[in-house]
Design a protein that fits this description.
By secondary structure, the protein is mainly alpha-helical. It has 2 domains: 113 residues, no CATH class; 73 residues. Helix content is 72%, strand content 5%. The protein is built from 7 helices and 4 strands. Strands 1-2 form a two-stranded antiparallel ribbon. Strand 1 and strand 2 form a beta hairpin. Helix 3 packs across helix 5. It is elongated and about 160 Å long. The protein starts with a helix and ends in a 7-residue tail after the last strand. This is DNA repair protein. Keywords: Membrane, Transmembrane, Transmembrane helix.
Length: 255
């Protein structure tokens, strides 16, 4: 898409230059022929301050001729700018091709395809691989050679980040991730059990406190009704911490 747009822009620029050059030559020829009284001047009805301007067409034709001739002097400068743009575009296209070729040969290098150690043999091996590549065989040999040299320079990087090492590192990280997930699941399970035990303990302590309160209330009630029944509970000082003795007393005399 970018190449098609650049081609259309290039064609329209060339067409515009050609049309302008032809128009400049034509108006110059017309002006020269009119100055030699071979052709007539352009007639242009023009009024200024209510009065008609004589020979207005001649002045306009001469002015347009001078303007066209003056602009023609800028065409070479614009041409050089267009040449620079074209060379820059070609350089960008070449860099894209080199990048694509380098990506292919670097991927092959990471897959441990090349085994030559010397620089000459290594570059030649990579260059042969690029020439046999189905997507890169149409590129220029100079571009393929540059990509092969770049791949040879970065072969240590390809060794460090080889596909086998990357796959092993990914498997290791995958195992670590699985271990972390298993640990998190067990941790969540332990948290659930801990929460359940705490809730259970709270309920047991609550029931114990309720039972103890009921027992204390029952003892207090028994202490209140035992004297009325003629039963008194005496606890000696020595036996206070060990045992208690219930002594039956005679009932109180009726008043």
């Amino acid at each position: 898409m970018n190449a098609l747009t650049a081609l259309i822009q290039y064609l329209f620029q060339r067409l515009a230059f050609a049309v302008f050059a032809v128009a400049a030559v034509a108006i110059t020829v017309c002006t020269v022929m009119a100055a030699l009284s071979q052709w007539a001047w352009i007639e242009l009805p023009l009024n200024y301050d209510g009065q008609p301007v004589e020979n207005a067409g001649m002045y306009a034709q001469i002015g347009l001729t001078i303007l066209a001739v003056g602009i023609c002097f800028f065409i070479p400068t614009n041409r050089r700018i267009m040449q620079l743009e074209t060379s820059h575009r070609k350089f960008a296209l070449n860099m894209d091709d080199i990048t694509r070729a380098y990506g292919a040969v670097h991927a092959a290098d990471r897959g441990d395809v090349f085994h030559m150690s010397s620089e000459f043999d290594s570059v030649r091996e990579r260059l042969a691989y690029l020439r046999d590549h189905p997507d890169l065989s149409t590129l220029e040999p100079a571009l393929l050679e540059v990509a092969a040299q770049m791949s040879h320079i970065s072969k240590e990087l390809a060794t460090v980040y080889a596909d086998e090492k990357i796959e092993r590192a990914r498997n290791f990280l995958k195992q670590r991730q699985e271990e972390v997930n298993l640990f998190n699941s067990r941790l969540d399970q332990a948290k659930g059990i801990t929460s359940e035990m705490k809730h259970w303990l709270h309920e047991v302590e609550l029931e114990e406190s309720v039972a103890a309160a009921q027992l204390d209330r029952l003892r207090a009630e028994m202490r209140e009704i035992m004297p009325e029944l003629g039963i008194e509970r005496r606890v000696s000082a020595d036996e206070m911490a060990r045992d208690s003795r219930v002594v039956e007393l005679p009932p109180k005399a009726a008043e």
